[in-house]
Amino acid sequence: MIYQLANCIGIMLAYAAAYLLAPTESWRWILGVAAIPAVGVFWVLCTRMDTPRWYVMKGRHQHAEEALRKLDPSADTARALAELRATLDTQTTGPRRRGESLRVLVRRPYLRALVFLVGLGAIMKLTGINALVYYKPLILQSMGFSGYTSLLLIPAGIQVVTAIATTFSALKVDRIGRRPLMLTGLAVMAVAHGLIALTYFTGVRTTSMQVLAILGFVLFQAGFGLGLGALIWVYASESLPGPLRAAGASITLTVDFGINLFIAQLFLTILDAVGGEFVFLGFVVITLASWVFMWKLAPETKGRSLDRIKDYWENDGKWPETTAVKDATTKQPETI
Fold it and tell me: What is the CATH number of the domain that holds 183?
């Protein structure tokens, strides 16, 4: 969820930088300014250590002890290291060799989980988020908006809604649950796409229609921040037991970026070919189908131990009655 908030802030800053540089009409500077935060992130990554868990998995115990000491100088690092090694040693039932995780996922009972994670990565982009982030100025222009303020500052302001919705989701996810937030977010996104499609179908470029379009964009960003934006990586990390978790998250990420490449290359071509009304009507259909997909397959991991997620898939996508629900007073950190 912190990742999504950082994403929102980055998009807002990108639009703001484009607005400030727009009078120069220099697209090279607009694109090149992104190198500044990229250099900063590169420097930060070069100065960070890997996690103690990763060092232990690689047999680099001295580095693991140093990492533990940096995380908590007052802790008993020798004891923490021993506990970490013991935890990893107990994970003897999971896949160990390269490619073994995939072979486990393509067979029952985890085939259902694989379908869910692949669908999750596809839904993230097919419901329209990157199409709107990349091409919102052009979409606004086709709706009669003009000027740098309308085409660049309005999209930046709309991103604030995503940040607010994501923050709300982060604060309430352990109380409301993953499924209700995800399903509500997708429903709001479907309504938003319908409003935007309506503005295209009317063919009217009046102020009232433009306000309706802005409302559609605002609702879409709110729904995305509430559901998909805040929860996709929570679900990717909580939907498989520990030995398979990295492979599952990698599959979701690969599908996500693969669909993103398709959207970036073909969205404008499709928009010009069929028109905005049918593009956004298509988004309505895709988003509603995504709602059904999540309703059918998404597990509710609220209050459940992540170590017991295998029970859900082994019981054909249902939580066994014998699986104990975690005490509500016990706080479990999320893996993001």
Answer: 1.20.1250.20
Query: SS3 for 255?
Result: helix
Q: Is the peptide bond before 37 cis (omega within 30 degrees of 0)?
A: no
CA atoms within 13 A on the CB side of 251: 24
End-to-end CA distance of the chain: 7
Task: For CA atoms 315, 320, 325, 326, give the dihedral sign.
Answer: negative
Report the predicted TM-score, pTM, of the whole model to 2 decimal places. 0.80
Nearest CA to 335 among 79, 3, 91?
Answer: 3
In-domain check, residue 220: yes
- 10-residue mean pLDDT profile of the chain (336 residues): values are 79 87 85 88 84 82 82 79 75 56 77 90 94 90 84 88 90 90 96 94 82 94 92 85 79 92 93 93 97 92 77 78 49 38
Find the Cα–Cα–Cα–Cα dihedral 246, 178, 309, 101, rounded to 10°: -20
- Whether residue 304 is contained in a domain is answered as yes
Q: Which has the closest alpha carbon to 163: 6, 30, 283?
A: 6
Which residue range forms the structural domain that includes residue 199? 102-314
Residue 143: partners with Cβ closer than 8 Å, 6 or more residues away: 199, 200, 205, 209, 210, 213, 276
Residue 306 lies inside a defined structural domain of this protein: yes
| Nearest to 221, CA basis, from 195, 202, 255 | 195
Domain count, the chain: 1
Kindly report the length of the chain: 336
The pLDDT value given to residue 331: 42
Helices marked H in the chain: 2-21, 27-32, 35-47, 52-57, 61-71, 77-90, 100-105, 111-126, 129-142, 148, 154-176, 178-202, 207-226, 228-238, 242-274, 276-297, 309-314
